[in-house]
Every structure is written in structure tokens, then in C-alpha cells.
Amino acid sequence: MKKATLLAIIFLILAQTAFLEGSDKVTDFRLKESPPDAVVNSYYISNRAPLKPSPLVKLPIGQIEVRGWLLSQLQLMRSGFTGHLPEISRFLKEDSGWLTLRGKGWEEMPYWLKGYGDLAYLLKDQEMIATARKWIEAILGSQQSDGYFGPVDNREANDLWPNMEGIMCLQSYYDYSHDQRVLDFMSKYFRYELNIPDEQFLPGSWQKLRGGENLESVYWLYNRTGESWLLELAKKIYRQTADWTSPILTTERDRLWEESSFYHGVNIAMGLKYPALYYQQTGEKQLLEAVERNYQQLMTAYGQQPGGMFAADENIRPGYNDPRQGAETCTMVEMMFTWETLLKITGETIAADRVEDIAFNSLPASMTPDLRGLHYLTAANLISCDRSGEHDFQNSGTLLSYDPWSYRCCQHNVAFGWPYFSEHLWLATSDQGVAAVIYAPSIVELKVGQKGQVVRLIEDTSYPFSGKITFTVFSEEEVEFPLYLRLPGWAESAFIWVNDEQPAEVNAPGKFAVLERHWKYGDQICLNLEESIRIKFWPGIGQAISVARGPLWFSLEIKEIWKSYGGTQDWPAWEVLPGSDWNYALEIDKDNLIRNIKLVEKKEVSYQPFSVENSPLVLEAKARQCPEWVAQGRMVGQVPPSPVSSVGSEKTIRLIPMGCTRLRITCFPWVRPEK
């Protein structure tokens, strides 16, 4: 090598070294699967020994303040039928069994109250809080001398299921108010349960299948009182609850419950988490493994569709597993709660991915944009929300039109979807830090670090419509604590930086990036998640495909024709009918799957982004009409196997986020482009 060339190389190396030494350092962080599970958060109630420590800990209601589009959802709930359901629902009148202790008094009122109360606390709405208190006081005032509470008719039927929901309402109320009566009430009631002979405890139907809801409440009380006998009750509840550790899709098992009840979509969404709940007491890893095994088995057979849900148009049914069967709105919010629960037990990011998948895609589509009407079933492929009943569903009658007066369980239970979601955006970590686990515009204030200093973090973002997220730290003095940032499983790469430091690229989807340092007032952390367009193949439905970008699935934009058919002027019922073609096959190039799909429109997020008119993102794709794909009555036909051969001329179609649509095709057949 010539001397001049060698000197030039040395000079270049020295110059680069000098530049790096003089510049800000690259952001320093560690990658973790989850927070540690061997230590306990010092400031917020989590699992008390001998229960397994909680890697992630829920904060008391009021410490998370939602903003932006998520605040809009809560405000629309308040002005929508959740906030006004006592005016509409026959189960929330003065003759309710929860007020009279007789008459109508099953699951409907506590279904609604557990969401309505949390909504009131999150919005700090005193009028709503007073309404919630009316029902809370009725529950507290109904307790009998032996500890039982609630409508006498339920006791005569030996049915504890409604009380499981009622107790969850009390838990949130205590979280907000610290009313000591709640702890005394629950302790007395659980003593009543402990004294029930096994042969009479959770004998059948919903209560046997859903006993894990009771189990979670028992652990909640134990963590606040430390009464050891509660752990004996927990063993009894788990022993008497239906077996959710064995494979779900097995016909050989000797069940003690009705097959139809076991296969009910809502029961499955609830029951999936029960082995993980009991894992906290036993530490047996096979219980956690059973949860994931059953989930994978369920989704492989019935979840071949986007939006985080599975086909259960009441029950899961052999032969009815395609993306037109739909899922109950009840099932959606219960499935979200299952993953919110597992997020705290396991500390793993995949649980948050699954919450977001439902919340950003399926849940908004289940309701009208003004949140004043919902329907029973929401499907990934749905071309008519009519009242005709001309659909191949298990139940008869109207299941798809948007009606604030009908649907009974979903009408009430949908109330807790967005509030519980909001309460899980930020979680305290076992190592005295904080984790941003579910992304949305928000503010959190909590104690962190070894000294319990108060820190306030503001999250600015339009996520899920953008992958750019900025966090700003506010504290009275310098404070050291770990900040966990979830790296979603869909984000192949991300950039992270603090203040003016150089961005660091990280390629670790499914992990936490943990930044632990001395934080100062005004420090800014930036997270930029890659949002490339992706194609997902569904082998269980003829290799159909779906299109995703970031956490959002995209559906064909179908012209919606809204027709009022009943209800009242203030609370109308709606049919939504198609005004444009829907039977398209996407053109897919095997050498470049996304070559024919591109982002063409990106606009500011509106007050209610989940509508066709306000869609913040629009993709365009090349497609061809598929004449062989036809409707069956009012129902979309099954997706034809791909690649399809009988197609029309090439067209450009628009795709918008699934949650913005009320009519949609989200699972497409595909065709090879012509040479």
C-alpha cells in the first residue's frame, strides 16, 4: 500500500473518532422480554406472597389521563348510549332486581356498571359518578347477614355469576374512592362462598364456565387484606370451575357442562385466561403454557381473519370458521380484558399486541361512529348490516343492524371496552419503573425509583395512525428509574433517542426497550416505529390475504348507505347497505408482494377517526373483480381459493383502516398480474 494512501486512511479514522467523541452519545438502552418477576413494586398494590410477583402492576384509577382520539371515544361513550343506557335499557329501570332485590336482576346491570363507573371516574364526571353511586350503594345495601348479596331470585337459582360482575364494579369503586366498606363487604361475601358445600358451589351453566372471574376478585382482595383463608377459597373456585387447561377443541372429554355453553364465544374469551390466573398461586408453568396452546388452537381453527377475533356467531361451530361469521361485541371486550390481565401476569409484550389488534380494528367497527348504536356481530368480511336475518348465523333475527335498543348483553357489556383499555396504557413495573405498554395520547403520574419520587410523563402521538411517539418527562428534581417502551411484534425495526442524542436503531420486535438513567425535567424520548405495508396469508381459508400497516388492518372502502328503520328520533336504529362493488381480488406479484399497494393519503386525526369520512389513512391497491365471488342472500360468499382465475379488468381500489368501516372486505382472494 502506498504511503500517501495509508496516511489518508489514518487521517480519516482519526477524524471520525474525533467527531464521535465530540457528538452526543447514541441512546443507551437494554432489551428485555419483560420486567423481572422476582421483585415487587413498592408503591402500588400487586401480588402479595405467596402469589407470584406481578411484573406489571395496574395503577389506581385517576393516575392515567387520556387525551386526543382516545379521550374522544370516552366522551362519545358519555354522550352515546353507554352514558344514557338507563333511559333505554329495560334492565336499568327502577324495578331492577338490583334495586328491589327481586325481579329482573341478572348480568345486565353489573355488565353496564363496571364500564359506566370506570368511564365516570376517568372523565371525572360528577353527575355520572353520582349515578354510578346509586347502583353501588344498592349493591352494598343488599348484603344479607350470611354475606350473600344481590337479587333474591339469583340466590334461589343458586346462581353466583351476576355477583361476580357486581364485585368487579365494587373493585373499581374502591380503587377510586378507597371506601373501606368495599373490603368488608367482599370479605363477608367470600366467607359465604367458602361455606357453600362443594356439590352446591358453581353447579353449572355460566357460573361454572366463568368461575375465573370470581378467582381474580379473590386475589384482588387478598392483595389488599392478606387474609390467608382467601387462598383456600381460590383453590376451591379453581377446582369447581370448568377445566380450561385441557385442549378446547376436543370432543372426547367428559364434560360436566353443556357443549353449547362451553363453545360459546364469550365463555371462551373469558376462560382462556383462567389457568394463568391460578398460575399466580401455584407457579406451575404448564398453566401458562395451556393458555397459549389453547389460544393457538382456537385461532388456527377459527381465527383465520384480521382484527384479533375468532369466528363465533354465538358458538364456534365446525364448518363455520371463515371471516364472514363474525364475533359478538361482548366477546371483543372480554378478549381485550383477557389480554390486559395476562399482560400483568406475564409481563410479555405480545399480550399488548393482542389488545391493540382488537381495540384498533374490531371494536370501533362494532358501533356507529357516534357510539349511539351497536350490533351483535362484527365480521372481517361484511357487505350488509341489515335487519333481514338472511344470514347463515347460529341465531335468528337481526344481528347486524345498528340498534341501541336490542342485543341485550352486548348493549350493556360494551361499556367497559374503552375504559379498561385506557387504564392499561401505562403500568408500573416490578423494579420501581414504568412501562408504556399500549400506545395512545395520554398523561401518567406515578411514584418511581428507589425514593418513590413523583414523575409525570406526557405521551404525544396519533398512534395507531402513526408510529411516531414522543414522551416528555416532568419531575421536580432529577430522578432515576427504568422506562420500558414496548416494541410491537409487527415493528421489524424502530428508532429510539433521547433529547438530541443520535437515534439508535433496534430490531427486536416483541421485546421491551428499557432506558434506565437519571431523568431531568423536560427530557424527551422519541420512539419511531416502522410502519411498512405487510401482506398476511390465511392458509385456513384458501390462502386468502389481508393488508396491514402498523397495528391497523385495511379493508375495501365500500360506499355505505345508511337507512333508519326504527327506534326513536334521539336513538334511531340503522341499516347500513352497500352502494358499490365488493367482490375484488388483489393483484399480487410473487416477487414483491406489496408492489401494487401504496399509501396515498395521510391526514390529521379527527375527533372521531373511526369512520369512512374521517379515515386518517388511505391505501390504493390494484385489483380485479372476481365474478365467481357472489353473495349468498344478504351474506358475503366464502372467499374463493387463490389464486383465482376468472377476473375482470384491472382497477384501482381504496383501502382504509378496518375500524373506520361498517361494511368491509378485509380478507381478499388474489390473482397474479398479467404479463
Describe this structure in words.
The protein is α+β, with helices and mostly antiparallel strands. The protein has a domain at 533-671. Strands 17, 18, 19, 22, 23, 24, 25 and 27 form an eight-stranded mixed β-sheet that branches. A seven-stranded antiparallel β-sheet has the order 3-9-10-11-16-13-14. Strands 1-15-12-8-7-2 form a six-stranded mixed β-sheet. A hairpin with a 4-residue loop joins strand 20 and strand 21. Helix 9 (180-195) crosses helix 12. The longest helix has 20 residues, at 3-22. The radius of gyration is 26 Å and the shape is globular. It starts with a helix and ends with a strand. The relative contact order is 0.12. The model is unreliable at 1-23 and 252-258 (pLDDT under 50).
